[in-house]
Amino acid sequence: MSCSATSTKTPSDLHADILEKINNHPCYSQDAHQHYARIHVAVAPACNIQCNYCNRKYDCSNESRPGVTSYKMTPEEAVKKVLHVGGLVPQLSVVGIAGPGDGLANPKQTFETFRLLKQYAPDVKLCLSTNGLKISDHIDEIAQYNIEHVTVTLNTVDESGEIGAKIYPWVFYNHKRYRGVEGAKLLLQKQIEGIKLLISRGILVKVNAVLIPGINDNELPNVAKKIKELGVFIFNIMPIISKPEFGTKFGLDGVKSATSKQVMNAQEKCGIDVKLMRHCRQCRADAVGLLGEDRSDEFSKNSFSEKSFEELEEHYNLNQRVRTHANIETWRRALKAANGKINQEQATKEELSSKGITKLVAITTKGDGLVNCHFGNAKEFLIYEAGDLGIKFIMHRKVEKSYCMGPDGCDGSYPIDEIKEVLKDCDLLLTQKIGECPEAELKSINLLSDESFADQPIEVSVLKGVRKHFFSSGLFK
């Protein structure tokens, strides 16, 4: 059967086997991402295409973007790391290979890793991220190792190859390098062919597209239409991260990073055609933990590489992990009951608000679906659009530094200006706690702060907060 979903499908409309596949997958399920963790294992250093937004370099622990890793691993080391991390982070549910190059440009390492994972960590879901060039060459192996989730980066469906040629300087296939339009056309042909094969095998496909203003921003609605036609499960629009110090071609050429507003505009144009992933964190190739946190620096090679598989299997403690996941599901059911059915993923402003007017609400959270993070500690904010009738999740927004970095990291400066810039279009902040000084700073940009919903479920708090501050005051009457 086809594992696809259009924008008109709600979770209750999906087939039971698809729901089971996405239930504890933090990338494919928006609800799961605050409860379950993922790990990326960096076993695939080589790549068969060049992207002008990519620079696969190592030892970059302060960067959170695709393709970055602190060290490479062999398949054996990767599986040992999964067992080591899985014992310490029992909410770990997904293992992905997402670089630092392309998994299918390194098929030997990639599939040996998946083979060992099936043997030693049979409870985790397996994920593969790829540019799509070699899917058709390896479709049987993907199916053989029960890789249920494959992400394909598809930045354009322009058949002329003109847009693709601006993004990809070259494509290497069957021992030949193709450049410019010729390479872009070949890549697109192989991507579409590969996606069709994956879906025909019942494999869930997520398509990533990098939003590159001035190059493919007007093309993304065409991508959305095409992947809906193909039966892709979910579409993720990622902003280009393009600082000159990252050393990418676009960054050095002065192509700027995409803004939150540009991403929101692209989502609005594409959301009518496909189901959108709005909670992506553009993870490193060695990311560990919940989406929104990266604990990769906690797990150096020497913490697991010398241990035996037998020792690590015992440490992994499969029975304890099963109990942890059962407890998570119990908590999720309680949250669902508390929040009700107010989160409407595809709703319009008119459906969210009796007045046709909505507000943007920022949330500080450490996970578990609660407003449970102090403003001073927040390095990211969840953004919801809300009216008096319902809410919908829009995106997350990161800042480079939290307002207060603690006694060890605080240099006497408080990066409130960056936070104000990130939240300048928001109307309400719900947080566990906030001091008088930052509260006054946020008020200067007309952003109200409210800590009365501390440690409460996020979704119902967003609705109550908007009703409290905007709809009960007579403002819209």
Notable traits:
5-stranded mixed β-sheet, 16 helices, 477 residues, 8-stranded mixed β-sheet, alpha/beta, Nucleotidyltransferase, domain 5, 16 strands, globular
CATH class of the largest domain: Alpha Beta
Strand element count: 16
- The strands making up the biggest β-sheet line up spatially as 10-9-8-5-4-3-1-11
Rg for CA atoms: 22 Å
Number of domains: 2
Quote the CATH topology of the largest domain.
TIM Barrel
Architecture of the largest domain in CATH?
A: Alpha-Beta Barrel
Number of helices: 16
Low-confidence stretches: 1-12, 58-63
How much helix is in the residues?
Answer: 25-40%
Query: Mean pLDDT across all residues, rounded?
Result: 87
Proportion of β residues? 15-25%
Structural class: alpha/beta
How far apart lie the N and C ends? 50 Å
CATH superfamily of the largest domain: Aldolase class I
Gross morphology is globular
How can the largest sheet be summarized?
A: 8 strands, mixed
Task: Provide a descriptive summary of the structure in words.
This protein starts with 15 loop residues before the first helix and ends in a 6-residue tail after the last helix. The radius of gyration is 22 Å and the shape is globular. Strand 4 (125-130), helix 4 (135-144) and strand 5 form a beta-alpha-beta unit. Strands 10-9-8-5-4-3-1-11 form an 8-stranded mixed sheet. The chain contains 16 helices and 16 strands. The protein has 477 residues and is of the alpha/beta class. Helices cover 35% and strands 16% of the residues. Helix 2 (75-88) runs parallel beside helix 3 and helix 2 runs parallel beside helix 10 (309-316). It folds into 2 domains: 11-303, Alpha-Beta Barrel (TIM Barrel), CATH 3.20.20.70; 340-471, Dinitrogenase iron-molybdenum cofactor biosynthesis domain (Nucleotidyltransferase, domain 5, 2-Layer Sandwich), CATH 3.30.420.
